[in-house]
């Protein structure tokens, strides 16, 4: 029987606060936004500050508390402006969503459900100046039915006509005490034990970026990945199966395992291109199955057996 497996969900998402009041250390921001949520009359907002300090988390929490799970998908549009930052996106996707009127719904439980939608533009400081100017006109035209939440690291890169139309909230880097407290909570939930020195070092190298600290915490030790790959290269399936069980038993995220294994395979000088292609194809297939909800143990076992076949030049059927 396969060992009990843990979720492959990134811990950054798993432990993301769901309510504004749970956002770490940004006391002034939390206080103002809590009062705003009570009135359900949100202005356009601009969140700025260093990465990993809770800007995106706060924007998402506001929307969840306003609309609840039922209306969230219909009322909220999330865009990463670093990927979708051209003026054509403003004139089509953003404008079409902003122009769509929503019906006023009665209060549903603890969710106010105000009569407007929200567009979240993450990394808005990456948008071109032309796109920002076009966005200004969209904000003016549809302000009654749409609110804009801008998220950026550098407020100086947001044009003044946009910034002046928003309530501005500055997010500060997290202190070492707060970082350690949050990391300790995650360690307790995940069954990890870290020495105080390790916690202090993790907080120090993260430099106030909690997202970075959590990501570092979840990364699998490289020696574990190397040991797994070495077992597969030996052609000994029993040894590879033992490594699979070790990975699962330790609760390492298998999706992260695949990412690190990919880097090792691609960089291996003594593995042929054909062998690399066969292994990487299987890694891609297994990763897609994980996203679809497949069992981590079975997918890691499948990758191990396919790697052994590829390395040992065994014949493998391709559908």
Shape descriptor: elongated
Question: Low-confidence parts, pLDDT < 50 over ≥5 residues?
Answer: 1-6, 315-319
Q: Spatial order of the strands in the main sheet?
A: 2-3-4-1-5
Helix content: 55-70%
Strand proportion: 5-15%
Radius of gyration: 24 Å
Domain count: 3
* Biggest sheet overview: 5 strands, parallel
Q: Which characteristics define this entry?
A:
319 residues; 55% helix; alpha/beta; Rossmann fold; disordered C terminus; 3 domains; Zinc Finger, Delta Prime, domain 3; five-stranded parallel β-sheet
Structure notes:
The protein has 319 residues and is α/β, with parallel strands linked by helices. It has three domains: 12-170, P-loop containing nucleotide triphosphate hydrolases (Rossmann fold, 3-Layer(aba) Sandwich), CATH 3.40.50.300; 174-218; 222-311, Up-down Bundle (Zinc Finger, Delta Prime, domain 3). It contains 14 helices and five strands. The chain has helices at residues 11-14, 27-39, 55-75, 87-99, 129-141, 160-163, 176-190, 196-206, 210-218, 222-233, 237-249, 254-267, 273-291, 296-311; strands at 45-48, 76-80, 117-122, 146-152, 167-170. Helix 7 runs parallel beside helix 9 (210-218) and helix 10 (222-233) packs across helix 12. The chain is elongated.
């Amino acid at each position: 029987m396969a060992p009990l497996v843990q979720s492959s969900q990134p811990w950054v998402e798993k432990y993301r606060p769901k309510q504004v009041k749970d956002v770490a250390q940004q006391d002034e921001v939390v206080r103002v936004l809590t009062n705003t949520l009570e009135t359900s009359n949100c202005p356009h907002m601009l969140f700025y500050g260093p990465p990993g300090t809770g800007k995106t988390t706060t924007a998402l929490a506001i929307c969840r508390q306003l609309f609840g799970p039922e209306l969230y998908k219909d009322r909220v549009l999330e865009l990463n402006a670093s990927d979708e930052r051209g003026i054509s996106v403003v004139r089509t996707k953003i404008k079409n969503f902003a122009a769509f009127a929503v019906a006023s719904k009665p209060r549903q439980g603890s969710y106010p459900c105000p009569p407007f939608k929200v567009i979240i533009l993450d990394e808005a400081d990456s948008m071109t100046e032309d796109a920002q100017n076009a966005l200004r006109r969209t904000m003016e035209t549809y302000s009654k039915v749409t609110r804009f939440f801008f998220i950026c690291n550098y407020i100086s890169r947001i044009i003044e006509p946009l910034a002046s139309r928003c309530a501005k909230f500055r997010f500060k880097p997290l202190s070492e005490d707060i970082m350690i407290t949050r990391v300790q909570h995650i360690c307790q939930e995940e069954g990890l034990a870290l020495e105080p020195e390790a916690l202090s070092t993790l907080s120090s190298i993260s430099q106030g970026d909690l997202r970075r600290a959590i990501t570092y915490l979840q990364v699998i030790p490289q020696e574990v990945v190397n040991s797994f790959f070495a077992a597969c290269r030996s052609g000994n399936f029993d040894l590879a199966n033992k490594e699979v069980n070790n990975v699962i038993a330790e609760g390492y995220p298998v999706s992260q395992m695949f990412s690190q294994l990919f880097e090792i395979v691609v960089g291996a000088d003594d593995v042929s291109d054909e062998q690399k292609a066969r292994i990487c194809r299987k890694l891609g297939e297994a990763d897609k199955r994980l996203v679809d909800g497949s069992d981590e143990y079975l997918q890691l076992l499948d990758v191990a057996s396919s790697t052994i076949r590829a390395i040992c030049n065994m014949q493998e059927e391709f559908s």
